[in-house]
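Backbone-to-sequence.
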């Protein structure tokens, strides 16, 4: 039996897969479960992507049928925009040689082979260029992230963020939800209240709510609910239901 978790880096177009402890592929049925779980994740993707797999906790039975099923699975996903897949956590006793892709001992080696781009060193004063906004109109979401570790230290920085988000919202005509990638974000006490005011301001521009994921540290606090992983944050907002982002409501909003 296997259980695999997924995370997505839409900026770098990389899907990350991680097997939970004691995952074992003992038959082609287990491969089919992996394939089905992976297929469900493709609903978030509309462009070519790469996959990085942590196989540390995955063991395979030394069986020719399993190898055949794995080969078929990889060819299947190559027909759905998969550009390359690489694994890490190589263990000779787990029969990782059956996997139809390269598996390296360490994550660093796998990322290098996959061509993962490290974030550029940026001028800390160039705060505006560190901000990235992605629009997902059909999912009625805007995702906010930062290229490198960023600390909101002043109301002035929050105002820069407000200006950039306001410009981005010129493309929106209906209700939306803000998703914040907190993996590089720290909010100081000096900027916390200003960030709360920003959220209130955005509420007047069709924003329904804000949620975050992947907090930078256990002790970090944010002016919105934060989940450990992106898929949990998305699941939380997906339960609300709303119209699509391409359905205009702005003319009816007073």
């Amino acid at each position: 039996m296997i259980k695999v978790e997924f995370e997505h880096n839409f900026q770098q177009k990389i899907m990350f897969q991680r097997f939970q402890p004691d995952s074992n592929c003992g038959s082609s049925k287990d491969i089919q479960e992996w394939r089905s779980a992976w297929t469900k994740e493709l609903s978030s993707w509309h462009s070519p992507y790469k996959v990085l797999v942590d196989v540390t906790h995955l063991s395979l039975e030394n069986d020719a049928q399993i190898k055949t099923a794995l080969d078929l699975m990889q060819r299947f996903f190559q027909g759905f925009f998969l550009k390359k897949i690489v694994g890490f956590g190589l263990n000779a006793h787990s029969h990782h040689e059956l996997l139809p892709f390269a598996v390296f001992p360490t994550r660093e080696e796998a990322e290098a082979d996959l061509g993962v781009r490290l974030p550029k060193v940026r001028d800390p004063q160039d705060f505006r260029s560190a901000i990235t906004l992605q629009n997902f109109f059909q999912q009625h979401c805007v995702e906010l992230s930062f290229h490198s570790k960023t600390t909101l230290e002043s109301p002035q920085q929050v105002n820069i963020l407000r200006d950039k988000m306001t410009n981005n919202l010129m493309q929106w005509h209906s209700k939306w939800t803000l998703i914040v990638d907190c993996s590089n974000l720290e909010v100081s006490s000096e900027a916390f209240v200003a960030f709360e005011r920003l959220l209130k301001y955005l509420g007047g521009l069709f924003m329904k709510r804000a949620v975050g994921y992947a907090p930078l540290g256990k002790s970090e606090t944010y002016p919105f609910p934060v989940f450990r992983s992106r898929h949990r944050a998305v699941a939380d907002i997906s339960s609300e239901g709303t119209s699509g982002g391409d359905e205009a409501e702005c003319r009816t909003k007073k």
